[in-house]
Amino acid sequence: MSSKPQQMTLDQFPTQITEKLRYGDTDRQGHINNAVYSTLCESGRVGFLYDPKQPFLQPGAQYVIAQLKINFIEEMNWPGDVIIGTGVTKVGRSSVCLLQGIFLNGICMATSENVLVLMDEKTRKSTPLFEVTIDALKALNVINITL
Questions:
Q1: Which pLDDT tens digit goes with each residue over 125-146?
Q2: Each residue of 85-132: pLDDT tens digit?
Q3: Where are the domains of the chain?
Q4: Is domain 5-138 classified as CATH 3.10.129.10?
Q5: What three-state secondary structure class fits 89?
Q6: Distance CA 39, CA 27 (A)
Q7: Strand, helix or coil at 145?
Q8: Could you give the residue ranges of the DSSP H alpha helices within the chain?
Q9: Which stretches of 13-82 are DSSP H helices?
Q10: For residue 139, what pLDDT is reported?
Q11: d(CA 76, CA 32)
Q12: What pLDDT does residue 146 have?
């Protein structure tokens, strides 16, 4: 990655959602449990992919996650509101790679790299993205970050 995760800023991500950290998200050490980071990334992905203003959905198809990599940068503690930034790093024939940043008080606490594949609901196999979907995804590239 050309940018260090600590140097990432929220304005590099074209889409953002806010989630509240819950007391129940903490673990025995008193910080936010590592599994919660995955849930926060999921919220960001769902907000990104299922935005009614975007042509990402295709009839008879759904996105499935093929790979999820999380880089834990800073310890997060309750309480707080986090912002999950999401953007595209690569678009394939039937897949899209996303980069996400989890920010608390303007600090990047974690990053996530995701590979999502568009799956035909009947055949359960990958299916090509529509050209309009490819164009819309490419328009939401993460700014000034290359993997």
A1: 999 999 999 999 999 998 777 5
A2: 999 999 999 999 999 999 999 999 999 999 999 999 999 999 999 999
A3: 5-138
A4: yes
A5: strand
A6: 15
A7: coil
A8: 34-49, 131-138
A9: 34-49
A10: 93
A11: 5
A12: 55
